[in-house]
Amino acid sequence: MSASPGNIYLRAGAAEDQATIRRMILDEGLNPTYINWVNFLVAEEVTEAPAGGRRIVGIGQIKPYKDGGRELASIAVLPAYRSRGVAALIIQTLLAQERGPVYLMCGNTMPAYYRRFGFVEVDAAALPYTMRRLFCASRAAMRIMALLGVHHTLYAMRHAMHHGSP
Length: 166
Hints:
Helices cover 28% and strands 30% of the residues. It is an alpha+beta fold and 166 residues long. The chain has one domain (2-159): Aminopeptidase. The strands form two sheets. Strands 1-2-3-4-5 form a five-stranded antiparallel β-sheet, sandwiched between helices. A hairpin with a 4-residue loop joins strand 1 (2-3) and strand 2 (8-12).
């Protein structure tokens, strides 16, 4: 368990976290596929006695794909804990554990946030095969949504300074 802001600590996900992880992902409207507690890092608030207790306040994962692709995904923090550095700590910790390229897909408001961690925008062709298929399918769905007046943009990003090469 590693210390973070206030009484918030990071730890590896555990089997008993699966329901909370799923609920947080669904509450945020994130992609609910490939949700396996084994891949998750959780941020947990630990309160002092006399009440004492633990509460998961943030989550994130590196999704491993069968083709070797690795995706930073499922970053979620409870509203009351946002702007306290919880997501940043989760992201930095997950990236520090990686030894190869890490990719992500995000909506129109997020690229600037992820650039802070060394991510750069890439063309879909630069994504590993499975991620590229998901990205292209999502973009097609967004084009259909645009016909209905709902406009979103999807970005593909790659961690520019992963361990081992620039």
